[in-house]
């Protein structure tokens, strides 16, 4: 039961260009969406989130876009830097008193110098 | 910057043995979680804990698993009789409030059951 899907297991981007990571979800009850970055041998690190009442949230080089009708969100990183190379997970959280996050399977981003 | 601390970083155990994974959440956080990631798979929710009790648990979190906050700082995950399929990275996380501000995860404990 994959409620949160990241269909691209990997992505390579040249330094300075835009990285676009995509995520789709199936559960219309999700109302918070988050992106986490994970380096090897470390725990996931929170990057940015968006509430379902918004369609865009920006924090420095990172922007998350939410298209509720398509049940799709994306993370844009501009400009991409070699230090951004990591696995990126999207996660979703619903209402009704649940605080758990449902994670996608991750996309490995490689930024080439 | 405050962090969530997990010990040990790597634990190897014999099948059928009990293991306790330890976590020290951020001191003023109120919500605590355990997640795991089997190699190459997604990060999966195990259990959430608030106000000294389990608030939610997944199907994975069966009778072999338990959590405890024995004092004001530690948060432990116990697996009573480990199975080979319990081999995974186990992540502890904490959060001051629920919502979109995200958890802070620890670095994880790699559990290897042999």
Short description:
The complex is a heterodimer of chains A (113) and B (114). Chain A has 113 residues and is mainly β.
Give the termini distance of chain A in whole angstroms.
38 Å
- How many strands, which pairing sense, and closed or not: the largest β-sheet of chain A? 6 strands, mixed
Mean pLDDT of chain A: 92
Sheet bearing the most strands of chain B, described? 7 strands, mixed
Kindly name the structural category of chain B: mainly beta
* Alpha-carbon Rg of chain B, integer: 13 Å
Largest interface: A-B, 25 and 29 residues
Task: Encode the helix/strand succession of chain B as letters.
Answer: EEEEEEEEEEE
- Radius of gyration of chain A, taken over Cα atoms and rounded to an integer in Å: 13 Å
Shape of chain B: globular
Uncertain stretches of chain A: none
Seen as an oligomer or otherwise, the chain set is: heterodimer
Task: Give the percentage of residues in beta strands of chain A.
Answer: over 45%
- Indicate the percent of residues in helices of chain A: under 10%
What's the helical proportion of residues of chain B?
A: under 10%
Describe the secondary structure blueprint for this structure.
The complex is a heterodimer of chains A (113) and B (114).
Chain A: E1 4-5, E2 10-14, E3 19-25, E4 30-38, E5 45-51, E6 56-59, E7 62-67, E8 72-77, E9 86-94, E10 102-103, E11 107-112
Parallel strand pairs in A: 2-11
Antiparallel strand pairs in A: 1-3, 3-8, 4-5, 4-9, 6-7, 7-8, 9-10, 9-11
Chain B: E1 5-7, E2 10-13, E3 19-24, E4 31-37, E5 43-50, E6 53-57, E7 65-68, E8 75-79, E9 88-95, E10 104-105, E11 109-113
Give an overview of the whole structure.
The complex is a heterodimer of chains A (113) and B (114). Chain A is mostly beta strands and 113 residues long. Chain A has no helices and 11 strands. In chain A, strands 2, 4, 5, 9, 10 and 11 form a 6-stranded mixed beta sheet that branches. A 5-stranded antiparallel beta sheet of chain A has the order 1-3-8-7-6, with no helix packed on it. In chain A, a hairpin with a 2-residue loop joins strand 6 and strand 7. Chain A is globular, with a radius of gyration of 13 Å. In chain A, 35% of the residues are buried. Chain B is 0% helix and 50% strand. In chain B, a hairpin with a 6-residue loop joins strand 7 and strand 8. Chains A and B meet through strand 4, strand 5, strand 9 and strand 10 of A and strand 4, strand 5, strand 9 and strand 10 of B.
